[in-house]
Amino acid sequence: MTDEALLRQYLLGQLPAPDRDALEDRLFADANLLEQLAQVETDLFDAAARHQLSPAELAAWQAYLSAHPPAQAFRTRFAAAFAKNAPPAPLSAPLPAPLPASPPPSRRFAWFAATAAALALLAFFWWNFPSPRPTTAEPVVFAFSLQPGTLRDNSQPQVLRLPARATHLRLDFPNTPTGAQIALRHIDSEALLWEGPATAGIPRTTLRPGDCLATLRNPQGQDLADAVFLLSLE
Amino acid sequence: MALNDSPYSRLLRELSSEPDQAALRFAQLRQRLVYFFSTRRLPFAEDLADEALDRCARRLDEGAPLHSTVEAFALGIARNLERELWKKPPTVPLPTHAASASQPASELSISLATCLDHCLDELNPAERQHILRFYTASGGEKIRLRQALAAELGIDPNALRVRMHRLRLRLESCVRSCAACNQSTSGAIQ
Question: Which of the residues A7, A27, A92, B34 has the least number of beta carbons within 10 Å of its own beta carbon?
Fold first, then answer.
């Protein structure tokens, strides 16, 4: 992986902890890498302003921006203004002449080829990026085994990537007693995302990407265990 | 109290014996720490970076041995601070954004766009053309344009990227000052 790709994943919080730590060791020793990181950050501002990030990347980017909102808000607005106001870049090649009302056969072929290419592209996206909404009414539950502990271990963070097809998430604590409940909180916003039976599936629509805290409680409402994990929605 | 008389004096001395160089490396160190906390999605990353720097300065002032560079020392302190935060999340006051609250978003974008035009005009024509060419295209066209621009200027693509990014930061700084100036002027009129 190139440094640029690595730095992009670093900013989006997508690097596994060992890789992140190794990158930070280099980052704290190399001024050129720091400058390159700033460039990748600027590229991400532009990509977000031009709607060029995937939904998962956008969510990760917004989570990154939330870490220091006042400074980043300006850069976000600047990137938007830059994308909107900057005129198209001058091209070195001359612009093609306007098409005649009735294109000659060679142009017609070009049109046909362009249309076919567009349809092929559409089919590609349709096939590879299906709608997150399932085609059947059946829920698709994704089960995730949690390691209890509120202290996120740098060497082995729990990262939960919820697949695009999953409609529900089930969090499995070890040794869960019958009738136990789970409360799921979003750490950054401190919002309570969901609360309910430990065996139930948590609807995808209630989830939010970022660091989350799951608390297992016995039927009497006493806390039994906590687990912190980083949630990303694919 | 000047930085030279403060607990920061040893930290700065360890960074460099040249004051200008020490100031530059200090700013870079702070930037690294802001990235460190931002990428962990910890709120108020800049405040946490300052806290890490304070701790670093205090430890050095107290005579802590430096086995490697100041940067590596600060990274260790940042990692410890992060562990503490995961054990006990801090309670932090909500920030107040008086500017955004008092000025509608549409007005802010208009003033930003006007400032951008103004600051682009402040650049010399070649710089203006280069930055627009460098940052406006996307996808394959972007790669082609950047390669063409690097070839025209006779520099390698990495050097071009560094040069354009510095220009971009200059432009951002100009727009920031201009927008702040507009805001205070409109505030004074009201």
Answer: A92
| Backbone φ and ψ of B87, nearest 5° | -70, -45
Per-range mean pLDDT, top range of B18-22, B70-74, B107-111, B121-125: B70-74
Does the predicted TM-score (pTM) go above 0.80? no
Q: Could you tell me the end-to-end alpha-carbon distance of chain A, in angstroms, rounded to an integer?
A: 21
Nearest to A188 among B32, B41, B179 (CB): B41
CA distance A150 to chain B (A): 7
Q: Do A154 and B36 touch (CB under 8 A)?
A: no
Instruction: Give contacts of A 34-73 with B, CB under 8 A.
Output: 34-35, 37-39, 42, 46, 50, 52, 63-64, 66-71, 73
Q: How far apart are CA B103 and CA A221, in angstroms?
A: 46
Mean pLDDT of chain B: 82
Cα A115–chain centre separation:
32
Contact: B44, A87; criterion CB under 8 Å: no
A171 close to A217: Cβ distance less than 8 angstroms: no
pLDDT value of residue A38: 95
Judged against a pLDDT cut of 70, whether residue A72 lies above it is answered with yes
